[in-house]
C-alpha cells in the first residue's frame, strides 16, 4: 500500500481550528517531516510506503525523545521548503475554519510545558537592495492607473506556454494602491483561477483570519502572487515561470511601495529575496527589498495541512505587529 503525495491531505490529526494550536517538540518534528515530504515531492517522488496513524504517532514519540539540540541543526540551509504545494488553492478537506486570533497557549502536556527550542537558527537579513524603489512615488490616481495598465498586460501575457494554455484567467492582485502592507503569495489555485482574485479559497480564508488577528483588515492590504497564472495540477511554479513573471511582480511592488512585504511560503520568499534558503531559515528576520521590510512566514495552505506550524506563524505575525506598532486601536 502506498501514500499518494498528490492525494488530498488527511483530515486526521490535530484540530486546526486555532492558530494557537499546541506546538511542542513533536510538532517541530512533524513540521520538519512536512518540509521533507515537500522536498521529496519537488524532487519527483510521488509515492511513499504507507504508514498508519499509530505508526506515525509511535515514531513521533521516539523522534521527540531523541530530538537534537538546536545547535545540532547544521543542515538547515539545505532544509526543504514547507510550501511545495502551498498554492492558494484549498486543500480538499481543510477541516474546521481556523480562527487565527488567539495567542498560542502553553501545551497541556507537562512533559512539553517548556517552549520548544528553535529548530532553525535565524539567518542574517537578506538585503536585495538598500536603495529606494526606482523612480519617484506617484500620486494615488496614477498608481491605480498604472496598476490597471499592468494588469491588462498581464492578462494578455503568454510567456509561459504551459500556464497560459491552462489558465482560465490571470490573477493580478488586489488591494489599495498605497498599502502599508503587502502579502505576497505563490500562485493562484483553482478558486483563484476561477474568480480572478487572489486568496479566495480555504487558504485565503485562513489568510484573512491571520490578517484580522494582527488588527488589520483584508481590504487594507494588497494581495498578490509571484506568478499570475495557475500552474497545472497546482504544482509549484517552475524557475523559468517565476523569472518570466518577475517583471510583473517587481513593477507591482515598485508602484505600491509598501512598508512591509509579508512573503507567504518559500516560493515567494525565495523569489523576492533571490535566496535558496528554506522558509525555516528565512522566517523570524526582517529582510530588505528597497524601501520595504520583508518578513517570510509559512503559507496558509501549509498551515492548513500542518496545524502544528501555526504557533511558529503566530510568532512571526507577532513580530510584525510589534515592529509595525499594530494593536487593536490601530
Ligand atoms: S505566469 Fe506570468 S509570465 Fe507566465 S504567462 Fe502568466 S502572466 Fe505571463
UniProtKB/TrEMBL annotation:
<keyword id="KW-0234">DNA repair</keyword>
<dbReference type="GO" id="GO:0006281">
    <property type="term" value="P:DNA repair"/>
</dbReference>
<keyword id="KW-0479">Metal-binding</keyword>
<keyword id="KW-0408">Iron</keyword>
<dbReference type="GO" id="GO:0046872">
    <property type="term" value="F:metal ion binding"/>
</dbReference>
<dbReference type="InterPro" id="IPR005122">
    <property type="entry name" value="Uracil-DNA_glycosylase-like"/>
</dbReference>
<feature type="region of interest" description="Disordered">
    <location>
        <begin position="1"/>
        <end position="21"/>
    </location>
</feature>
<feature type="domain" description="Uracil-DNA glycosylase-like">
    <location>
        <begin position="172"/>
        <end position="318"/>
    </location>
</feature>
<dbReference type="GO" id="GO:0004844">
    <property type="term" value="F:uracil DNA N-glycosylase activity"/>
</dbReference>
<dbReference type="InterPro" id="IPR051536">
    <property type="entry name" value="UDG_Type-4/5"/>
</dbReference>
<keyword id="KW-0378">Hydrolase</keyword>
<feature type="compositionally biased region" description="Low complexity">
    <location>
        <begin position="77"/>
        <end position="90"/>
    </location>
</feature>
<feature type="compositionally biased region" description="Low complexity">
    <location>
        <begin position="98"/>
        <end position="114"/>
    </location>
</feature>
<dbReference type="InterPro" id="IPR036895">
    <property type="entry name" value="Uracil-DNA_glycosylase-like_sf"/>
</dbReference>
<protein>
    <recommendedName>
        <fullName>Type-4 uracil-DNA glycosylase</fullName>
        <ecNumber>3.2.2.27</ecNumber>
    </recommendedName>
</protein>
<keyword id="KW-0227">DNA damage</keyword>
<dbReference type="InterPro" id="IPR005273">
    <property type="entry name" value="Ura-DNA_glyco_family4"/>
</dbReference>
<keyword id="KW-0004">4Fe-4S</keyword>
<comment type="similarity">
    <text>Belongs to the uracil-DNA glycosylase (UDG) superfamily. Type 4 (UDGa) family.</text>
</comment>
<feature type="region of interest" description="Disordered">
    <location>
        <begin position="62"/>
        <end position="120"/>
    </location>
</feature>
<keyword id="KW-0411">Iron-sulfur</keyword>
<dbReference type="Pfam" id="PF03167">
    <property type="entry name" value="UDG"/>
</dbReference>
<dbReference type="GO" id="GO:0051539">
    <property type="term" value="F:4 iron, 4 sulfur cluster binding"/>
</dbReference>
Amino acid at each position: 500500500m502506498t501514500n499518494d503525495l498528490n492525494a488530498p491531505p488527511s483530515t486526521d490529526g490535530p484540530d486546526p481550528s486555532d492558530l494557537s494550536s499546541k506546538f511542542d517538540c513533536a510538532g517541530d518534528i512533524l513540521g520538519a517531516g512536512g518540509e521533507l515530504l515537500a522536498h521529496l515531492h519537488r524532487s519527483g517522488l510521488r509515492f511513499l510506503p504507507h504508514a498508519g496513524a499509530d505508526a506515525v504517532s509511535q515514531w513521533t514519540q521516539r523522534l521527540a525523545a531523541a530530538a537534537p539540540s538546536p545547535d545540532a541543526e547544521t543542515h538547515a540551509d539545505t532544509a526543504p521548503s514547507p510550501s511545495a504545494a502551498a498554492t492558494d488553492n484549498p486543500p480538499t478537506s481543510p477541516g474546521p475554519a481556523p480562527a487565527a486570533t488567539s495567542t498560542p497557549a502553553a501545551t497541556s502536556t507537562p512533559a512539553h510545558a517548556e517552549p520548544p527550542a528553535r529548530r532553525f537558527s535565524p539567518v542574517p537579513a537578506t538585503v536585495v537592495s538598500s536603495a529606494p524603489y526606482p523612480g519617484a512615488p506617484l500620486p494615488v490616481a496614477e498608481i491605480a492607473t498604472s496598476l490597471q495598465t499592468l494588469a491588462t498586460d498581464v492578462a494578455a501575457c503568454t510567456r509561459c506556454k504551459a500556464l497560459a494554455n491552462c489558465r482560465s484567467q490571470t490573477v493580478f492582485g488586489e488591494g489599495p494602491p498605497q498599502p502599508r502592507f503587502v502579502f505576497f503569495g505563490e500562485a493562484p489555485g483553482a478558486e483563484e483561477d476561477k474568480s480572478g482574485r487572489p486568496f479566495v479559497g480555504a487558504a485565503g480564508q485562513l489568510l484573512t483570519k491571520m490578517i484580522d488577528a494582527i488588527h488589520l483588515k483584508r481590504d487594507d492590504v494588497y494581495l498578490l502572487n509571484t506568478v499570475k497564472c495557475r500552474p497545472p495540477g497546482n504544482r509549484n511554479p517552475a524557475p523559468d515561470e517565476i523569472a518570466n513573471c518577475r517583471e510583473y511582480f517587481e513593477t507591482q511592488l515598485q508602484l505600491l511601495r509598501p512598508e512591509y512585504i509579508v512573503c507567504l511560503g518559500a516560493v515567494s520568499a525565495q523569489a523576492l529575496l533571490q535566496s535558496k534558503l528554506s522558509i525555516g531559515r528565512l522566517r523570524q528576520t526582517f529582510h530588505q527589498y528597497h524601501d520595504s521590510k520583508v518578513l517570510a512566514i509559512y503559507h496558509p495552505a501549509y498551515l492548513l495541512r500542518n496545524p502544528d506550524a501555526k504557533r511558529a506563524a503566530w510568532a512571526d505575525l507577532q513580530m510584525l505587529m510589534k515592529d509595525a506598532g499594530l494593536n487593536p486601536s490601530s
